[in-house]
Here is the input.
Amino acid sequence: MILNQVKKLIAIDRLRFFFSEIVPVFLLIFFALTIEWILLPTGLNPEVFGIIFYVIRGIVVVFAIPTTLVLIKRFKGPSQSEKIDKSKISVFKSHFMMYKLSKSNYKYQLLYGILLLFLVFIPLNFFLYLLVPEMLLYHSYSLGVNLQNSYLLIDNFIVFFVSLVIIQVSIAIAEETIYRGFINKRGSEHFNRNSAVLISAYVYGFLSILYYLNPISSNFSFWFPIVWFFALFLIGLTLSLTTIRRKWLFPPIFAHSISNVIMISLIWYFLNGGKFIDILFSTYIPLLMVSIILLIWQYKRIRESISTGLGMLKEYLQNNEKEDERNSDKYFRIFFDFIMGFLVFLIGLLITI
Here is the structure.
């Protein structure tokens, strides 16, 4: 197939981002995490090993991204626009500004984090486990087979909960930094921001494929990842749309970590003899009531956010007039963004497995 100029630019912009930034960043993270596995003593107590393991991973991800981008920039030299514009902020400052809580916006960031938790994570997790109850059993077994998750075997709930909070905050920081702070934000600097949002959401959704790579998946239904993909994709899409608009990482990190704390707590109770249906309803029904209250209280803000998000998606599905797109170019862009998401997922296996 002969590609016209528009299609070539679509492919070149995305592949340039993939090979010039994504691959080097993931390789550096992989190298650093390999060293962690070599140096970290496996004989530590489970509550200590899990905390150290995940905290180090979080720190590695946070610093590896700007470090790699700085090294790439020095290797290539400053671009023509950077030579002209001397006031452009540094890569490190731009990266760490996303974590910043200021006096003027910390209340709004916290509010957005709470809304994401109660209006996205809580309902999706509840209905996912309600419709596919075996998912809890699968998550229980899949987490328990890893040394770094052996904190789930701690009998004392207080000790377990402290470990859980530290670990899940570290996981949320690492994942949101990669998917929202890097792929989403940096992608929008290489090509259309709506494409960056969709690519980030696709990558997050493709994490469901990891199910097939787990040996215990043979004991469960083959179609689990299909349901799981749509749940993860919707979460990723919502978080990416929020991040691309606000340039804040605290709200998705907050919502992600608290959601994981709730979910893993349910798994701990399940592993310690609790009945699934009792655990599910006694935990999520009160949380869903809070969700309804927040929906009514913040209806105007929520409606505005949904309208903005749908507007961005509508714009994505239209021909890009700035790039002189035709229908065939638009379909190629949408298809290539999907392929791009899968490519990023594949290279991401280096730091996932």
